[in-house]
Amino acid sequence: MKPQQTSQFPDYPFTPQRFDVRPGVAMSYLDEGPRDGEVIVMLHGNPSWSFYWRHLVTGLSDPALGKAYRCIVPDHIGMGLSDKPDDAPSASPRYDYTLQSRIDDLDALLAHLGITGQVTLAVHDWGGMVGFGWALRDPARVRRLIITNTSSFPLPAIKRLPKRIAMGRHSRFGGWLIRRFNLFARGAAWMGTTRSLPRDVRAAYAGVYDGWEQAISTLRFMQDIPLDEGDRAWPLVDAAAKQLPSYADRPAFIGWGLRDFVFDRHFLDGFRTALPNAEVHAFADASHYVLEDKHEVLVPMIRSFLDANPLDAGTWRVSA
User: Fold this and answer.
1) ∠ CA(268), CA(293), CA(151), 5° rounding?
2) What is the pLDDT of residue 3?
3) Is 145 within 8 Å of 245 (Cβ atoms)?
4) Helix/strand/coil for 77
């Protein structure tokens, strides 16, 4: 497949690759840094894409900046530069926009790349549930954690589902508005930070979802949020929540924007409780897209964290 053109995306000097995670459905992903480097798997949520991680990818994969890491950064199907198939029963190819599908896609990508050893999980938003859900298959493969405004457990009992999310999850009309006018991605590009993003950065976040067909996954992600035991993703989220404290013996870095109206202090408290030894940096002047608000500070912090907690030689190697 031809390389995708990314010159219109600021600070995104990468050449995405593509892989068919299932017949006729291609995932776009970044694979930056040395092939024999320690593997960092970066997982975005909704409504962002690998663009969210761009500063961290540059800061970790460039050997001119120090030890270079191998950064694997997929765009979930329906997101970013990946294919955006329909999920109608008659669609061909058809894709089922579920948490389980996301986990299966990640597993297929890593197998395709021959990555069979230990990895570092970097997660944001619903990427947390994708990553921790994938880790249920073999928790020993996760040796370090980088956590930014995300979750690995159900909505805390003390917190209500925000109205802007409930609009898409519960309202047919709200869902129509989201797909027709790309409301969720556009809104997040304006309200997901405390700093004012340049126009081209906002366009990079939201423009990939302009159009009814392009915005399908921004809505399906909302509709798949599990709130009770009757929801199809609930067993995975419940299992991940029970598994989370077992990672307390591994190095963990938490970078959190405290002005996030979704993943707020209640979610941060959940991670603090489960991972009491984590290195925590919470910013009162940062919001949901914390790596936009604080990348100048967070990228060197994360590099220092990784450098100070190296993996054992050979544990991250790819298979022959």
Assistant:
1) 25
2) 45
3) no
4) coil
Indicate the pairing of strand 119-125 with strand 39-43: parallel
Q: How far is CA 25 from the centre of its chain?
A: 19
Using alpha carbons, select from 133, 65, 131 the residue that is nearest to residue 306.
Answer: 65
Confidence of residue 320 (pLDDT cuts 50, 70, 90): very low
Percentage of the chain modeled with pLDDT above 70: 96
Sign of the alpha-carbon torsion through 150, 154, 158, 159: positive
Give pLDDT, residue 5: 59
DSSP string, 239-267: HHHHHGGGGGGS-EEEEEETT-SSS-HHH
At residue 23, φ and ψ (nearest 5 deg) are: -55, 120
Geometric angle at alpha carbon 289, from 127 and 131, rounded to 5°: 10
- Residue 170 phi/psi, 5° resolution? -110, -20
**Would you tell me how many other CB atoms lie within 10 Å of the CB of residue 98?**
17
H/E element, 238: helix 234-243
- Residue 218 CA to residue 77 CA, distance in Å, equals 11
Cα(188)–Cα(57) distance, rounded to whole angstroms?
Answer: 22
User: End-to-end distance of the chain based on CA atoms, in angstroms?
Assistant: 24
Mean of the per-residue pLDDT values of the chain: 93
Helix (H, G, I), strand (E, B) or coil at 15: coil
CA atoms within 13 A on the CB side of 279: 16
Report the b/e string of 215-227 with b at 16+ CB within 10 A. Answer: bbbbbbbbebbbe
7 Cβ contact partners less than 8 Å away, ≥ 6 residues apart: none
**What is the average per-residue pLDDT within 172-182?**
91
The two tokens of residue 268 are: 């941060």
| Residue positions counted in the chain | 320
Residues 6 or more apart in contact with residue 273 via CB below 8 angstroms: none
Mean pLDDT of 165-193: 89
Residue type, 120: T
* Cα 162 from Cα 169, distance rounded (Å): 11
Task: Show the tokens assigned to 254.
Answer: 């938490």
